[in-house]
């Protein structure tokens, strides 16, 4: 998420300072009046409370001088609020985290200070982003958004703690984990709310592993267990034994942004060196050299929230490698990367083979990982050697229908966008035709997500015109159970009850469905796997029967069977006249559906190929 603008931060701080003065004056009026002068304004009848509160008196005389005194006495506190807001507007307090690892005392207090300073910008950004995502669903901002804002804030707080743990800044021994064991693996791991039951698996130190499995089979849960990040509250506590080896553990989650703690890319990487005992100056030097080696020097000064999904994966990977871990856990790192970067990352993983680092990568059939490491698959029988093979599934034969008239349903003209001095979109124009599929591809950071968001924003609040499924589908959820989410989607779209669930069932099929339907009343949408979240978000937006459906990297987190199901569903949707605008690093998945293929680069869009269907 991008930080709020400096003007917004200053205005909010000013409002907070003024609000504090009024609240202080009101407090004085209510509790004992605001007397102490000759210019009487009101004489409020007094009321003395009883029992243990008998010393408290409500009401009393209110004078002009008393109000003035209460206001002026609060000015120093209001001044602190205003100055803090101005500082937050122009300085990212998260960069202070660079000082924390070198502290010999008071580390916890310093971390708490940094986190508290970072809370206000995050709350503002979360509220704005949640409101924006709700409008993409056609939800008018109401009290419905209070719950998701609070949940995201709590998730961020947990994420900060996990990031500190993953990066060795505030490590703690996790429950049920044996960090001194030589082998890496799990024994009888059971996580009831994730559908993981009695899984056992052991690998030798220094091995390179590709862990595959169906969408929702538990791959992410296994990595989180090895990273010591499973919840330990009584309602969701896992059982079994986890062996994470004898050394440091680094974990790259689905959401790489959750790892970021500093205010710039350079400081993110420098923090890893500082945590290893280097001075800040040497750490920043090493960070610059590392970015140069990875050809990422142009990202050095960027705020981490401004990175594209692929750039965030790369920066997070570089950051974790700088910690020199003994166990490196990567949760589907390739699916957000373009072809050239996927090859480079796999080459980098090859270089780790001779360094004694145990590497476990979860994946859904990326060809770049063929021949790299040993393959294991998570299935109903446990974890078996070999790559997961999606089961074949027969689909009803499509009835041949006459193609719809391809009139223009959306015409986007001169779309422009920039981040700072970097121009992402330079007067891009694009026409979308009814019943046609338009595929946008391009390198990491080329602006594909920005383009889709710019298109969707032209119809903000009207998903029946343009319905966007973002690259982070969890941003769309507003209910605390899947059953409520699907039912609410029907209500918002004015669809027949059960339509969204039927659409979801047709998108993702397989063994996970029975478990999800059984848990639906209690399963939180954000607790689903990444692929399942994508399926839910697509089903929600299809309930509007939109003229244009925008999909941002829709195959991330999906296994081959789920991708095939998705293609079948959107193929049927296309036949009804819905236009599809898809941003993807893997256009081959949609080759049979594509009418127009464009490449985005240098802020401009170029027609790469045209297929008439």
Describe this protein's structure:
This protein folds into three domains: 1-91, no CATH class; 176-385, Rossmann fold, CATH 3.40.50.300; 408-610, P-loop containing nucleotide triphosphate hydrolases (Rossmann fold, 3-Layer(aba) Sandwich). The chain is built from 15 helices and 19 strands. It has helices at 6-30, 64-90, 107-137, 146-166, 219-226, 265-274, 280-293, 309-321, 339-351, 448-457, 482-493, 499-507, 511-519, 530-542, 560-575, and strands at 40-48, 57-63, 184-191, 196-203, 208-213, 239-244, 249-252, 327-331, 358-362, 374-379, 382-385, 408-419, 422-433, 437-441, 466-469, 548-552, 579-583, 596-601, 604-610. Helix 1 packs antiparallel against helix 2 (64-90) and helix 11 (482-493) runs parallel beside helix 14. The longest helix has 31 residues, at 107-137.
